[in-house]
C-alpha cells in the first residue's frame, strides 16, 4: 500500500513516543520506507537504538553532527522523502513550527521542506486546550499542515480528555490518503471477518476449524489498499497483524457478531470467517476431568448466531454490499446458490474445502461466484489474487450503488 514510499518520521518528546515504534512497524508492513529523526527530548522516551533496529537505518538527531551534514544534511533528509510525519508532536514542537523556529534538526527539517507534513499531536488535555496551542493549530492548518487527532481518552497523567495520540493505524491511513489520493474506495467503509472461531468446551478446550484466515486477511488488505476505511474482525490465526486498518481480535462467534454490529454502518461487509455453526451450551467453568469419562451426550450444542444472515438483514444499517463465503465439501455451486438466497446476501464466494483441496490453510482458492444475476467460475488463484479480483468487482459494483 505504501510500496516504495519514503516516510520521514519525526519523534518529539512526549509520553506517546513509544507508539512511534508501532507506527514504524505498520508503515514498513505496508511497504513504506522509514527514516527517523528524534528530538533531544524524544531520546528520553525512546532510544535511538530501538528506532534504528525497526527502521533498519541510522537515526538522525543532531544538526551539528558533521557526519549527518556531510552524508545527508537537513535539506537532503527532506528532499529524500515523500512525506514527513511528526508523531507524537509535542505542544512545544507545534509552537516552534508555527513560529518557524529551527533550533534543532527536527524543526529545521520541517521548515526546510516542501513535502506534505502530517502531525499527530499528543499532550495533556490542558496543554491542548490552551489558547496558545489552539492558535498554533489554526495557523498550522491554514498552512496546509494535516492534523491527525488527537483522540479523546484516559491520559498517562491520569486526566481524561482530548490529547491522546491517534493510533498508528489512523496515522498510516492518513499517510495513504495523502500519498494516494485517487484510490477508488476512498470515503467508503468496509468490514471483513476472517479466521476460525473458537467455541469453548471448558477453560482449556474448544471446538474450532482449520481456517487459517489467509483469505479474509488478503481481502481486508485489498480493500484497505483501494482506500476503504477497513475493520478486520478476526478469530485466532497465526498471521501477522496487517497495517492500515482497525483490527479486532475475537474468539467466539458471539463476540464476532457483537463487533460486527458495533462496526455498522459500513458500505461493504465481507464475511470470510469460518464461523463455527455450533457452540457448547453447557460449557464448564472448570476443566472437565478425564476420569469423568465424558461422552458426546454430555456435551450439549446450540446453534451459533448467523453473522452473514444478520448483516444481510440488518434493518436500517444493512451494508450496501454484503458478501459471504460458502465453504462446502460437495455440490459446491448449488450449495452456494442456495446459501445466497437463504441468507439474503448480495454475493457468495463458494469454495471447495474438502480434504485434499488444501483450501483451508493453503495459499490457493477456487471460487464459484454467485450473485443475484448469475454465477461465474473463477480459475484457481492465489488467495491474494482472489482478494484483488474481488476488490475490483466491489469497486465496479459500489460505483453503481
Ligand atoms: C515525563 C514527561 C512527559 C511529557 N509528555 C509530554 C507530552 O505528552 N506532550 C507534550 O507536548 N509535552 C510533553 N512533555 C514536555 C516535553 O517533553 C517538553 O516540552 C520538551 O521541551 C519537548 O521537546 P521537543 O518538542 O523538542 O521534543 C513531557 C515531559 C515529561 C518530563
Give the topology.
Elements: E1 6-11, H1 19-29, E2 33-38, H2 48-55, H3 66-79, E3 83-89, H4 91-99, H5 105-111, E4 117-121, H6 125-129, H7 131-142, E5 146-147, E6 151-154, E7 160-164, H8 168-179, E8 189-194, E9 199-200, E10 206-207, H9 214-225, E11 229-234, E12 246-249, H10 253-263, E13 268-271, E14 278-280, E15 301-303, H11 307-312, E16 321-328, H12 332-343, E17 347-352, E18 364-365, E19 367-371, E20 374-377, E21 381-382, H13 383-398
Helix pairs in contact: 1-2, 1-8, 3-5, 4-7, 9-13
Flavin mononucleotide (FMN) binds at residues 12-16, 39, 41-42, 90-93, 122-123, 127.
Tell me, what's the shape?
Answer: elongated
The largest β sheet comes out as: 8 strands, mixed
Mind telling me the C-alpha Rg? 25 Å
Name the CATH architecture of the largest domain. Answer: 3-Layer(aba) Sandwich
Features:
Rossmann fold, 2 domains, 34% helix, binds flavin mononucleotide, 8-stranded mixed sheet, 401 residues
How would you describe the overall organization of this protein?
The protein is of the alpha/beta class and 401 residues long. 34% of the residues lie in helices and 23% in strands. The chain has 13 helices and 21 strands. Strands 12-11-8-13-16-17-19-20 form an eight-stranded mixed β-sheet, sandwiched between helices. Helix 1 runs parallel beside helix 2, helix 4 crosses helix 7 and helix 9 packs across helix 13. The chain starts with 5 loop residues before the first strand and ends with a helix. The model has no long low-confidence stretch (mean pLDDT 91). The structure holds flavin mononucleotide (FMN).
Amino acid at each position: 500500500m505504501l510500496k516504495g514510499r519514503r516516510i520521514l518520521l519525526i519523534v518529539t518528546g512526549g509520553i506517546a513516543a513509544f507508539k512511534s515504534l508501532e507506527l514504524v512497524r505498520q508503515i514498513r508492513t505496508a511497504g513504506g520506507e522509514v527514516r527517523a529523526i528524534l528530538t533531544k527530548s524524544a531520546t528520553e522516551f525512546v532510544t535511538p537504538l530501538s528506532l534504528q533496529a525497526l527502521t533498519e537505518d541510522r537515526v538522525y538527531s543532531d544538526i551539528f553532527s558533521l557526519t549527518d551534514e556531510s552524508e545527508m544534511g537537513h535539506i537532503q533528509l527532506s528532499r529524500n522523502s515523500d512525506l514527513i510525519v511528526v508523531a507524537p508532536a509535542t505542544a512545544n514542537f507545534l509552537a516552534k513550527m508555527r513560529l518557524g523556529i529551527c533550533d534543532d534538526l527536527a524543526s529545521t527539517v520541517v521548515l526546510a521542506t516542501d513535502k506534505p507534513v502530517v502531525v499527530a499531536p499528543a499532550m495533556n488535555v490542558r496543554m491542548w486546550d490552551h489558547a496558545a496551542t489552539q492558535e498554533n493549530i489554526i495557523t498550522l492548518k491554514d498552512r496546509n499542515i494535516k492534523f491527525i487527532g488527537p483522540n479523546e481518552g484516559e491520559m498517562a497523567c491520569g486526566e481524561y480528555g482530548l490529547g491522546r495520540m491517534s493510533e498508528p493505524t489512523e496515522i498510516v491511513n492518513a499517510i495513504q490518503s495523502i500519498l494516494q489520493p485517487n484510490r477508488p474506495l476512498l470515503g467508503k467503509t468496509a468490514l471483513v471477518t476472517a479466521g476460525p472461531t473458537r467455541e469453548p468446551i471448558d477453560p482449556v478446550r474448544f471446538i474450532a476449524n482449520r481456517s487459517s484466515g489467509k483469505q479474509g486477511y488478503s481481502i481486508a488488505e485489498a480493500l484497505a489498499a483501494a482506500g476503504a476505511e477497513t475493520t478486520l474482525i478476526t478469530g485466532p490465526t497465526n498471521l501477522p497483524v496487517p497495517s492500515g486498518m482497525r483490527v479486532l481480535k475475537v474468539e467466539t462467534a458471539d463476540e464476532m457478531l457483537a463487533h460486527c454490529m458495533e462496526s455498522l454502518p459500513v458500505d461493504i461487509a465481507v464475511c470470510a470467517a469460518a464461523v463455527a455453526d455450533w457452540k457448547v451450551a453447557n460449557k464448564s467453568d472448570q476443566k472437565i476431568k478425564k476420569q469423568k469419562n465424558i461422552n458426546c451426550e454430555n456435551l450439549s450444542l446450540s446453534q451459533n448466531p448467523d453473522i452473514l444472515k444478520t448483516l444481510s438483514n440488518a434493518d436500517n444499517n444493512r451494508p450496501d454490499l454484503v458478501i459471504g463465503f460458502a465453504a462446502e465439501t460437495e455440490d459446491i455451486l448449488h450449495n452456494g446458490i442456495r446459501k445466497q438466497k437463504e441468507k439474503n446476501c448480495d454475493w457468495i464466494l463458494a469454495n471447495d474445502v474438502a480434504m485434499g483441496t488444501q483450501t483451508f490453510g493453503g495459499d490457493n482458492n477456487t471460487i464459484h461466484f454467485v450473485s443475484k444475476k448469475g454465477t461465474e467460475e473463477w480459475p484457481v488463484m492465489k488467495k491474494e489474487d482472489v482478494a484483488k479480483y474481488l476488490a475490483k468487482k466491489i469497486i465496479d459494483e459500489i460505483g453503481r450503488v
